[in-house]
Design goal:
With 369 residues, the chain is mainly alpha-helical. It has ten helices and eight strands. A two-stranded parallel sheet has the order 1-4. Strands 2-3 form a two-stranded antiparallel ribbon. A two-stranded antiparallel ribbon has the order 5-6. The longest helix has 38 residues.
Length: 369
């Protein structure tokens, strides 16, 4: 078993481990481990203790799983199965650490009555709907150019392609499935690029129209930070789309040549770069712009700060340790996540079934292609 196989098999578990490690740094300070807390308690000792405990467990459990997985991948005949198992273990360790930290903070919040005597409220900035943030579509130009280039290369190379084209590569980079040359197999990379780019573009479009989680104590300022957050995150998603398309193009060139081996790490490098860009933006910006400098985000004219008003404690709408949002009275399709950065579906809205079906259909179509 080569070093390349071991490294390739460890990429996904390591990425999952790193993302889990950085999740607390991306979250809104008012939502440590998905628990809504008032601003006066954001520096509570229990929160710092649970962050340290979370990362300790993640380092010990997740790090050990990755190390053991690397050894097993080097000696067992199926490194892909090892990588899948290790990824599941790392995810389970992260989930366990998260639930422990969440329970400890919720317990302290209820025991000490953090919300006792506080005025709770919700703020809405209608300008986010009447004058929404414009989608940064110029950032989609590289992805569009890469799709056009891939399609042009497919047309030019089609006559000289071998009769059998590889359609799947194992963890060691060796082709293990083949199909007869046809328009479908030859242009499958272009279809994959169109599907992935379209899905990320749809995510950007929906997110820009999604509901903002504003701070009732500073609605205008938090709305300004939210706008910057949308612009930065949307641009990062479109950069990720371009880099994913580049990976698909690199793989397509090898497929069209009929090559039976590839270097997985080389093909994954652009995707990893795109994820790194997204993570850096997420850490520097924070969920909803919570990590942005308040002085740098110039608010538009609107309601001023309202001292003494705190965000309503709406944790009862969040299920499964704060990962699933269900609120039938909320018309929003997408809402800001409580873990990490990004958006999640409001499963209380029937329209989300259509979006979920679209995503499932896309995944099925890609697997068939």
């Amino acid at each position: 078993m080569t070093v390349t196989v071991v490294v390739s098999g460890a990429i996904v578990p390591v990425v999952v481990l790193v993302l889990a490690w950085l999740a607390p740094a991306m979250a809104d300070p008012g939502l440590p481990f998905g628990v809504r807390i008032p601003a006066a308690h954001r520096d509570a000792a229990v929160i710092g203790e649970q962050r340290r405990s979370y990362r300790r467990l993640l380092a010990l459990g997740g790090g050990s799983a990755v190390a053991v997985g690397a050894v097993l991948a080097a000696v067992l005949p199926d490194p892909a199965a090892v990588a899948t198992a290790v990824t599941a273990v790392v995810a389970a360790v992260g989930a366990t650490a998260h639930v422990r930290a969440r329970r400890a903070i919720r317990s302290a919040k209820e025991r000490e009555g953090w919300y006792r005597g506080l005025r709770q409220g919700v703020s809405v900035d209608t300008s986010l709907r009447t004058r929404p943030v414009r989608a940064p579509w110029p950032w989609a130009a590289p992805a569009a150019l890469l799709i056009a280039l891939t399609a042009a290369l497919a047309v030019a190379r089609y006559p000289g392609m071998p009769g059998q084209l590889p359609t799947h590569f194992g963890a060691d980079g060796t082709a293990d499935r083949f199909a007869a040359k046809s328009l479908t197999t030859a242009f499958a990379p272009v279809l994959a690029q169109l599907g992935l780019t379209g899905l990320l573009g749809l995510t950007v479009r929906l997110a820009l129209r999604g509901r903002a989680d504003l701070d009732p104590a500073d609605p205008a300022g938090s709305a300004a930070r939210h706008r910057r957050y949308l612009r930065r995150t949307s641009a990062a998603l479109l950069v990720l789309a371009a880099l994913v398309d580049l990976s698909v193009l690199l793989a397509a060139v090898r497929i069209w040549r009929g090559e039976h081996t590839v270097e997985p790490a080389e093909l994954l490098a652009p995707v990893l770069l795109g994820l790194a860009v997204l993570v850096v933006v997420a850490v520097r910006t924070g969920q909803g712009g919570s990590r942005l400098d308040r002085a740098s985000a110039r608010p538009e004219p609107g309601p001023g700060p309202e001292p003494g008003l705190v965000h309503v404690d709406d944790g009862h709408h969040w299920r499964l340790a704060g990962t699933v949002y269900v609120n039938r009275r909320d018309p929003a399709l997408l809402v800001p996540k409580r873990l990490g950065v990004g958006w999640t579906l409001n499963l209380g809205n029937p329209r989300t079934l259509l979006l979920a079906a679209l995503c499932a259909g896309f995944a099925l179509a890609m697997s068939l292609i």
